Structures are given as structure tokens and as C-alpha cells.
Amino acid sequence: MVLIGAHVGQDDPAAHAEEVGAEIVQFFLGDPQSYKGPVLPDKPVEGIDFYIHAPYLINVATTNNRLRIPSRKLLAQHLKAAADLGAKGLIVHGGHMGKDDDPAIGFDNWRKVFERMECPIPVLIENTAGGDNAMARKLDNIARLWEKLDGFDVGFCLDTCHAHAGGEQLVDLVDRVLAITGRIDLIHCNDSRDAFDSGADRHANLGSGKMDVEAILAVCRAANAPIIVETPGEGQADDIALLRKNL
Fold this sequence. Notes:
Helix content is 37%, strand content 15%. By secondary structure, it is of the alpha/beta class. The strands form 2 sheets. An 8-stranded parallel beta barrel has the order 1-2-3-4-5-6-7-10, surrounded by 4 helices. It has a two-stranded antiparallel sheet with strand order 8-9. Helix 4 runs parallel beside helix 6. The longest helix is centred in the N-terminal third of the chain and has 21 residues, at 65-85. The radius of gyration is 17 Å and the shape is globular.
């Protein structure tokens, strides 16, 4: 059976998991909008598997040294902290380039990350919703990124909302992703508040957004990977129950 869980607060992840019926959890280590280093939980996370989501600000692809260098440092800090805590993996967004930048430089910058950084647990690169020069919004760019990362043990996190908002149809999405990455380590199962190809990263509870729930379920079935809902908290228990009933 596939494990189903939720993104929860870091103050007491195990307790939050129990509240919503989650079998696994994901949480941040501190402020996701800050370059400050990771903040560890007050007590060990016991009795449940968990993933750590890296801060949103990390952008190791950019040509801007003032962003790329602290991003690399922050990614390494969170990877070590996640590994020390016993996390199953660290999720990080693919990042983006400036409007007029050559995306090839961004793919090269991603390769340099793995050339210079030890990975005691898997780093899972996540597809993103917006940006015209994003490294991981469209599957063609994800293919270029994975070609550049050939030889490294890099995982993939597939977000359903991001795919929809990023302009990728859910039909046969898993097959198309697997043809590129060879693996899907985690599913972020989210509905979207916005229309297809909007570029907007705004999650909704399952069935309350603009996406077809049956198409979302089909992605989850085909991927056969652990599932995390990153939906509004008041509806997470219902989202998990819906997934458990239908999967």
C-alpha cells in the first residue's frame, strides 16, 4: 500500500500527522522564505517517516552570484540537517534563470551542485508551476536537466498542481516523466485554484479547485510513490481520506 500523508507544521510533526490521519509527513526546518540556516525541531520525530522541504528561496541555477552562492550553502545545510534527523529525502524546487539568460548555464550550475555536495539522503528535485525560464516547469527542460545530471543519484518529486499550472497535461504524465527521470520518489498531490498553464502556484483541497480529481488520482495510481498533500490544513484530513478510499 502507498503511504499517504501531509505537509505539517514543524513544531510537532507526529502529533499533526495523527490529527489528519497521515502515515507520513513533510515539513520545513524554519522559515521557507528566509536564507537563515535550518531550525531543528525541539524533539526527535519518532514513529513516522518524514521528508524535509527546502526553503523556497533556494535557486542554485541562477547566474546571480548573490543568490546562487547562498542558495548552494543553504541547500547543503538543509541536506545535512535532514539527514541528521533521519528524513527520507530533501525536496527542492528546480529554480529559474533571468529572462534573457541561457538556460544551459542553469543546467550546468545544477550539475556543479552535485559535483561538490555529498548526498547522504536523496535530493528530490520538484517540478515547478511558473516562470518562463524555469529549470523544471516544462518536461522538455526537465529532460535537459536530467541529461546534465546523468551519473548522479538524483530523485524526482512530482507535484500535480505545479504540472497543471505549468502547462503539462496530467494524462500519461507519469509515463512521460518516467521516460525522462526513470523514477518518481514522491508525489505532491494538490488541486489548483487556477486554470491550466496559469503559472500560478496556489494549491487547493482535492475537488475544490480547477483540476479533475479523477486525473489526479490516475497520476497517484500510476506513480506508485508515497503521497504528500500540501493542501489547506482545514481540509487535509478529508483529502487523505479521499486518497485512501480511492487508492
